[in-house]
Amino acid sequence: MQFTANQIAAILGGYVEGNSEAVVNQLAKIEEGVDGSLTFLSNLKYEHFLYQTNASIVIVNEDLQLSKAVNSTLIRVKDAYSAFSELLKVYHNLRTEKRGIEELSFVHESAKLGDNIYIGAFSYISKNVRIGNNVKIYPQVFIGDDVTIGENCVLYPGVKIYYDCVIADNVTIHSGTVIGSDGFGFAPQKDGTFSKVPQIGNVIIEKNVEIGANTVIDRATIGSTIIRDGVKLDNLIQVAHNVELGSNTVAAAQTGISGSTKVGQNVVLGGQVGVVGHIHIASGSQVQAQSGINRSISEENKKWGGTPAMRYSSNLRSHVIYAKLPQLEQRIAELEAQLKDLYIAKLEK
Fold first, then answer.
1. Does the structure show a pLDDT above 90 at 321?
2. Which of 126, 203, 239, 282 is the most buried (most CB within 10 A)?
3. Is-catalytic flag, 241?
C-alpha cells in the first residue's frame, strides 16, 4: 500500500511542508528511516534524528522549530504521537480488511450471521450460534453451540469458544486462546481419587475487551465467569472458574487468578502475579510483578508487592534488608565470637 504526503495529511488533519507528492509504503523508527518510509517525531530528545533520517515523510508537531534543514517532507499536526497512533489504526484496518465466508469452513444451518462478516477456512460454527455485524473469524476458529458474539469482534486463528458463552461488542481475542473450558473442579474421594465436578456455567465477556494469545478463561461451575467492560489481558493468562474481573482491569503475562476471586475496577496486575481463590481485590489496586496475593485487599488505590503481598513501600524496604542479610549474618557471627571470648575471659578470672 502506498500513500502520498497529501493523503496522509488529509487523514490526520495536518498540512504538508515539502514535497506533497512524496510517497511512502512502509513505517519505520525515525533513526531507521529509509527512502519510502514514514516516521514521526514527538519527543525532542530524538530531534537530532530528524536531521539525519532518510525517511521520506516525518510527522512532527506543528509548533516544532527547526534548527537545521531537513531532507524529509514534514507533515505538521497538533500532536505527532497521537496522529501517528491514529495512522497505525488506519494501516492496521487496511491490512486486516477481510469479508466473506471462505471455502472449507462449516456454518451450521441454525446459526445466524450478521452483515459484513468474515469466516476463514477450517473454522467451525456450531448450531444456534449468533454472530453480530462486522465480525472477523480467522481460520481454524471453533465456536460451540449457543454461543453469542456481538458486533465488531475479531477472533484470530485457533481461538476456541465453548458452548453457551457470551461475547459482547468490540472484543478482540488472539490466537490460541480458549474461552469456556472446564473449571478445575474435582471432589476428593475416600479412596484418594478425585471425582470431576461438572462445570455447567459459562463465560461472559463484556464490551471493549482484548485478550492476548494462549490465554484460558474457564467456565463457571454454576453461574458465570465474568470479564467486565474494557478489561485487557496479556498472553498466557489463566482465569479460573467463577472469577469476576472488574471494568478496565489489566493483567500482564503469566498471571493466574484462582476460582471465585472478585477483582475490582481499574486493577493492575503485573506479570506472573498469583492470586488465591475466594478473595476480593479492591478497585484501583496495583500489584507488582511476581507478587503472590493470599488474602483479600480491601483498601482501594494502593500499591502492593512481594509474596505474600504487602504494601509496595514496605516490600521495597524489605528488599533492602534482604540484600544486607549476608553482612548481618557475618556481623552476628563476629559478635557471637566476641561474646564467647568475653565469657571465657570472665571464667578464667
1. no
2. 239
3. yes
